[in-house]
Amino acid sequence: MVVKNNDRDYKTMPSYQLKNLNSRHFKIVDLAIKGWSETAIAEQVNMSKRHVCIIMSSPTFKHEFALRRGIHEVIEDETVRNEENEVDAILKDGARAAANKLITHVASDESNISIKACAEVLDRSGYGKQIKQSTGPANPTIIINLEDTQIIRDTIVLDSKIVESKTVGVETK
């Protein structure tokens, strides 16, 4: 290990064998795991850079560093996985709530709101607007009249009853 300090090369470090680490050494391990440079660590723990390098080259230090880095990486992986699961759960709950809200608008007495809600439900369920390819201007239009709205409303109500009966364990006929 070559350490440059004040334009001198320390090619051979003194054989400094730590038998066990003290609290200062553990602080150096923590900072090294966080990616701090030897110079920054030395300033933080109020030691010379050379002394920090000597400590960090010790087999006892290297062993502790390897153990903690492995544990640190496992903990980080678990934390990321847990956060991803929490985010997924929140998004799924939000999507259910949004879908339920949209479904309630399908049954609205105001035809304009009902038609827009039906179009949104169809679009999100994969039965969105069919776009014709033509050579003319691309202004596709879908027209949902009151009769179509009633059919969509009835279908959604029927689907929700089927889903409810399946969750309760009752067979529908």
Give short descriptive properties of this protein:
single chain; 173 residues; Arc Repressor Mutant, subunit A; 2 domains; two-stranded antiparallel sheet; 65% helix; rod-shaped
Write up what this structure looks like:
The structure is a single chain. By secondary structure, this protein is mostly helical. The chain has 6 helices and 2 strands, in the order ββαααααα. Strands 1-2 form a two-stranded antiparallel sheet. A hairpin with a 2-residue loop joins β1 and β2. α5 packs across α6 (146-168). It is rod-shaped, with a radius of gyration of 33 Å. It starts with a strand and ends in a 5-residue tail after the last helix. Residues 1-13 have low confidence and may be disordered.
